[in-house]
Design goal:
The chain is an alpha+beta fold and 237 residues long. It is built from 8 helices and 12 strands. The chain has helices at residues 17-21, 28-32, 114-123, 125-151, 154-169, 182-189, 193-205, 221-229, and strands at 35-39, 44-46, 55-60, 63-68, 74-80, 85-86, 100-103, 107-112, 171-172, 175-176, 209-212, 215-218. A hairpin with a 2-residue loop joins β11 (209-212) and β12. The longest helix has 27 residues, at 125-151. The relative contact order is 0.13. It binds a DNA duplex (13 and 13 nucleotides) through residues 153-154, 181-183, 191-195, 197-198, 201, 213-214.
DNA sequence: GCATTAATTGGTC
DNA sequence: GACCAATTAATGC
């Protein structure tokens, strides 16, 4: 972990909330106080139930955000790539982080303390607004997810998970740009790894997807979308 | 190469 | 549709 902070002014992540709103004189000092954290693949940088250490922005890499269930089962809430925000529910009223976050590959994160964030809210109104809109959107997605979990079959949930990954991370050379374990797909879709494997095998037989080891590729995204959109289940998440 | 972990398949409740 | 067991494939050391 090298603590040499990256500079926001030259940051490549133009979609980052800090980058978009906080490159103003009144926020300069606060931004300089951020920490840059480098973590290896599989490294957990937010621990559920531990003291919240503020907000994280993914500078580079891919991470998963999850809640752990009682019998060791985890529910993956979402995945995040560069420019995105992590741990945003950990600050504010509750000082305890409600989620875990784990790097899916070697990643670099920018970390702001809760106090510094509050200073930013006070100094930069557009940042507050931007974040509020983000929260609203997150809530919307979360509500869609409740509906999906209640009404979709396992097959539909797995298809939905694959489409989510395709939408968010894209595909290169016919394969998704995010390679997950079968179990991770299951943890995200809300089912078991055996079920995921069965759905994947049948989708493969039906020529919707192709696989190469762990890698999964969607052959025709629109065709796969039809599998769930016909049921009016296709909502953003 | 051996040991561990993941993927797959079949079966039971 | 979850859980368990057995087999095979992949991966780490």
């Amino acid at each position: 972990m090298i603590n040499q902070s990256l500079c926001c002014n030259t940051c490549k992540n133009t979609e980052c909330f800090i980058r978009k709103n906080c490159l103003v004189p009144e926020a300069e000092k606060i931004i300089q106080r951020k920490n840059t954290i480098r973590c290896k693949k599989s490294q957990q940088f937010i621990i559920e139930g531990s003291l919240s250490h503020g907000l994280f922005f993914v500078y580079e890499g891919k991470v998963k955000v999850a809640k752990t269930g009682l019998n060791g089962r985890e529910q993956i809430l979402r995945f995040a790539h560069s420019g995105e925000i992590i741990g945003h529910r950990g600050f504010g009223v509750c000082k305890i982080s409600p989620v875990s976050a784990i790097a899916l590959e070697d990643s670099i994160l920018c970390n702001f303390t809760n106090d510094d964030l509050i200073s930013l809210f006070n100094q930069v109104p557009s940042f507050s607004l931007d974040l509020m809109l983000f929260y609203a959107e997150e809530l919307n997605k979360s509500e869609n997810k409740v509906k999906k979990f209640a009404q979709m079959t396992v097959r539909e949930k797995v298809i939905d998970a694959l489409l989510y990954i395709a939408r968010k991370f894209g595909q290169t050379d016919g394969y998704l740009n995010l390679t997950l374990l079968r179990k991770e797909i299951a943890d995200f879709a809300g089912t078991t790894d055996e079920q995921v494997i069965r759905v994947i095998s049948s989708l493969k037989k039906e020529n919707f997807i192709q696989t190469m080891g762990k890698k999964i590729g969607i052959i025709n995204i629109d065709l796969l979308k039809k599998e769930i959109s016909e049921h009016n289940f296709y909502l953003g998440s």
